[in-house]
Specification:
Oligomer: heterodimer
Number of strands of chain A: 11
Number of helices of chain B: 0
Shape of chain B: globular
Largest interface: A-B, 31 and 29 residues
Strand content of chain A: over 45%
Radius of gyration of chain B: 14 Å
Helix content of chain A: under 10%
Helix content of chain B: under 10%
Low-confidence stretches of chain A: none
Mean pLDDT of chain B: 93
Structural class of chain A: mainly beta
Largest sheet of chain A: 7 strands, mixed
Structural class of chain B: mainly beta
Number of helices of chain A: 0
Order of helices and strands of chain A: EEEEEEEEEEE
Number of strands of chain B: 11
Distance between the termini of chain B: 37 Å
Shape of chain A: globular
Order of helices and strands of chain B: EEEEEEEEEEE
Mean pLDDT of chain A: 92
Strand content of chain B: over 45%
Chain lengths: 116, 115
């Protein structure tokens, strides 16, 4: 069964460093998403991406964040200058349909980002 | 921001019995609701969904009920099995200005099925 994959599974970085989290969405999916879950908190939406551009972004997704689809298979989240509060589990998701009501999002296993 | 609420942080059920997980929402614009299951150190796994034009959707042991007037949905698992022990998240999406939809999650309910 096709699945979303993410690398690395765990990333440790120093505050102020740049990190890139990678995702390979399900191959025939058109819509891509990043969410995060800070320990003990809800899963929160960060950004959605369609047709090589950002569709929507939340207040969390400030200028320190960027997303890219550098080739036909990868979808990346970059954090330019990490802060302690960026420590969280980051989930990539993808969906097939055109953003309609039956748009089921499938999630990857997550990357645990630890900022020291 | 409490647009999707799961008021029970935990639920314990005996194996073979019914598990009922509840979820409330406040945003009338939500028109699609999903349940995800999550094991520790894994991503949310899609379980079942329901569109706002329906009031029930069934898939094997899992049934989701939607009460739009009460802005309430529930997930029934019958019969419950020890492998069902996980955190269950309710999520909702609705029309947005962008072409892709964002999910709003509840805080989750830890289900423990006792053998």
């Amino acid at each position: 069964e096709p699945e979303v994959t993410q690398t690395p599974s765990h990333q440790v970085t120093q505050m102020g460093q740049e990190v890139i989290l990678r995702c390979v969405p399900i191959s025939n999916h058109l819509y891509f998403y990043w969410y995060r879950q800070i320990l003990g908190q809800k899963v929160e939406f960060l950004v959605s991406f369609y047709n090589n551009e950002i569709s929507e972004k939340s207040e969390i997704f400030d200028d320190q964040f960027s997303v890219e689809r550098p080739d036909g298979s990868n979808f990346t989240l970059k954090i330019r200058s990490t802060k302690l509060e960026d420590s969280a589990m980051y989930f990539c998701a993808s969906s097939q349909l055109a953003g309609g009501p039956s748009d089921t999002q499938y999630f990857g296993p997550g990357t645990r980002l630890t900022v020291l | 921001d409490q647009q999707v609420k799961q008021n029970s942080p935990s639920l314990s059920v005996q194996e073979g019995r019914i598990s009922i997980l509840n979820c409330d929402y406040t945003n009338s614009m939500f028109d699609y609701f999903l349940w995800y299951k999550k094991y520790p150190a894994e991503g949310p796994t899609f379980l079942i969904s329901i569109s706002s034009i329906k009031d029930k959707n069934e898939d094997g042991r899992f049934t989701v009920f939607l009460n739009k007037s009460a802005k309430h949905l529930s997930l029934h698992i019958v019969p419950s099995q020890p492998g069902d022990s996980a955190v269950y998240f309710c999520a909702a999406s609705g029309f947005t200005s962008g072409s892709a939809r964002q999910l709003t999650f509840g805080s989750g309910t830890q289900l423990t099925v006792l053998p």
